[in-house]
Amino acid sequence: MAKDVKCEVNNCMFWTEGNKCNADVIYVVSHTGHSAASKKETDCTTFQPSI
Ligand code: SF4
Predict the structure, then answer these.
(1) Which of 5, 12, 31, 36 could form a disulfide with 21 if both were Cys (CB 3.0 to 4.6 A apart)?
(2) pTM across the whole model
(3) Which residue ranges in the chain fall short of pLDDT 50?
(4) CA-closest candidate to residue 50, choices 12, 7, 16, 9
């Protein structure tokens, strides 16, 4: 289990200073089913815009 999640998406409502994610849980999915060939094929679906 990850102790800390670092994230650069600073317009997410869970983002905090220092590139930290403040969400209790994040859910990451693949664009291509249940596996991915590269990090570009993954996304955090917990993202919610802060504005
Ligand atoms: S929920 Fe996802 S997109 Fe939002 S700050 Fe956390 S890791 Fe980043």
Answers:
(1) 5
(2) 0.90
(3) none
(4) 12
